[in-house]
Input
Amino acid sequence: MPPVPSAVPADAPSAPRLADVLAALDALWPPERAEQWDAVGTVCGDPGATVTRVLFAVDPVQEIADEAVQLGAELIVTHHPLYLRGTTTVAASTFKGRVVHTLIKHDIALHVAHTNADTADPGVSDALAGALDLRVVRPLVPDPTDPAGRRGLGRICELDRPATLRDFAARVAHRLPGTAQGIRIAGDPDAPVRTIAVSGGSGDGLFDQVRAAGVDAFLTADLRHHPVSEATQQTALGLVDAAHWATEWPWCEQAAAQLDEISDRHGWDLRVHVSKTVTDPWSAHHSSDSSGAPN
Ligand SMILES: [Zn+2]
Output
């Protein structure tokens, strides 16, 4: 008897199971490469469920859970963990519990790639450098277990042509997504800049490595008074401080493109989205009157 023709050709794209997508994500950002204190991996989700849409975002907050519901996504991948320090309740009376309830009610899985994505090749700081058209030379803090010397924290980069610190900051302001904070500079705005260390997210624990690298400038987020004051007193290092969310958001686009490519290779029927919702917690900014010194 001849085979009965199927309505669906054998090579037609089919939606993957969550377990298949998670295996692909773990291959990109192996969870064992996360820092000891971190909480990466799958927060909720049924491995056997089908996934047709994925939403990438920086923060696992309620706005992102609601966006996934609107989109019909069955998987959210975020950079930041929902529960970094563990919990004893997911009651919907807590804001994180409300996120969990929204996700489970709508069959949406949540997966986190945090410090394992920071140090990956390509990682969070490669995406930041790419958004700014910087040429990546090497990691700022190389991962000693990577013989190729490409993985690690932060990146040392070069500008295509020399600019002033002020020009570079203007490029950062123009290329990264807009936030209330905007961009702050420490150091001489007219100093020439050619080599730059970049680190997506909070980077003021990296000043020793930045100084040792001998770069002209350092772009990161969450810079505080004392480390900045000391760094600018000690050397002519220029500092560019952007919003934490803005420095990590380019990773969402990079990660989405990586999953898209994997999906094509497997012949998956999967749509990959990047959230454009600004989840940086700062909501407004006023420049103070710089001519008004204290009386
Ligand atoms: Zn972060």
Q: What stands out?
A: The pocket of zinc ion is lined by residues 79-80, 201, 244, 248 (CB under 6 Å). The radius of gyration is 21 Å. Residues 119-242 form a domain with the Udp-n-acetylmuramoylalanyl-d-glutamate--2,6- Diaminopimelate Ligase; Chain: A, domain 1 fold (CATH 3.40.1390.30). The chain has two domains: 18-116+249-273, 119-242.
